[in-house]
């Protein structure tokens, strides 16, 4: 005889409420006064991961009101795990910061690296082109043009002093 919460059971009577198989010494879960073997409990009641469709039995991640295993919640670009990390999304796909910047961020005309806007960083935009603030410099003398007037010469930007030579 098994004793469960001070209630005696015959070994053959202590069965899973769903599959009716004897539980014996296997792990089980008591839910709503019914006993379930672990496998049946997971199939019937556990959240299913959106990615792999398997039950989530330990801590998971909730993204867009959908459950994920921590191991399944990864960047769509590089597959880096995103749980507990900074990430962003586009078109319902999650991206790590680096992949998002490489794929979607505007690129600085001067240094060609992505302009992330991280931390409220500012950038300059002029005629469909963008520059990081620290890259917005005169092509001839390298003086910063942030907050100053400037001239254009083909695709270059120059300060008014260097523009006097034209």
Automatic annotation (TrEMBL):
Keyword Zinc-finger: yes
Top-level lineage group: Eukaryota
GO terms for cellular component: nucleus; Z disc
Family matches, as PROSITE patterns: LIM_DOMAIN_1 (PS00478), LIM_DOMAIN_2 (PS50023)
Keyword Electron transport part of the UniProt annotation: no
GO MF annotation terms: transcription coregulator activity; zinc ion binding
InterPro entries given in the database record: Znf_LIM (IPR001781)
Residue ranges of every copy of the LIM zinc-binding domain listed in the record: 47-106, 109-166
Keywords per UniProt: LIM domain, Metal-binding, Repeat, Zinc, Zinc-finger
PANTHER family linked: FOUR AND A HALF LIM DOMAINS PROTEIN, FOUR AND A HALF LIM DOMAINS PROTEIN 2
Name recorded for this polypeptide: LIM zinc-binding domain-containing protein
Species assigned in the record: Echeneis naucrates (Live sharksucker)
Organism lineage string: Eukaryota, Metazoa, Chordata, Craniata, Vertebrata
């Amino acid at each position: 005889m098994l004793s469960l919460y001070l209630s005696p059971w015959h070994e053959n009577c202590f069965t899973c409420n769903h599959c009716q198989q004897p539980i014996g010494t296997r792990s089980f879960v008591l839910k709503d006064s019914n006993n379930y073997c672990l496998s049946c409990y997971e199939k019937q009641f556990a959240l299913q991961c959106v990615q792999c469709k398997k039950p989530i039995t330990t801590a998971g991640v909730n993204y867009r009101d959908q459950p994920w295993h921590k191991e399944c919640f990864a960047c769509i670009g590089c597959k880096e795990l995103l749980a507990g990390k900074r990430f962003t999304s586009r078109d319902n796909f999650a991206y790590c910061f680096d992949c998002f910047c490489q794929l979607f961020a505007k690129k600085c005309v001067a240094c060609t690296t992505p302009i992330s806007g991280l931390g409220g960083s500012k950038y300059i935009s002029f005629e469909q082109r963008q520059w990081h603030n620290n890259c917005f410099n005169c092509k001839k003398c390298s003086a910063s043009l942030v907050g100053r007037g400037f001239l254009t010469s083909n695709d270059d930007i120059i300060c008014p002093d260097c523009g006097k030579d034209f």
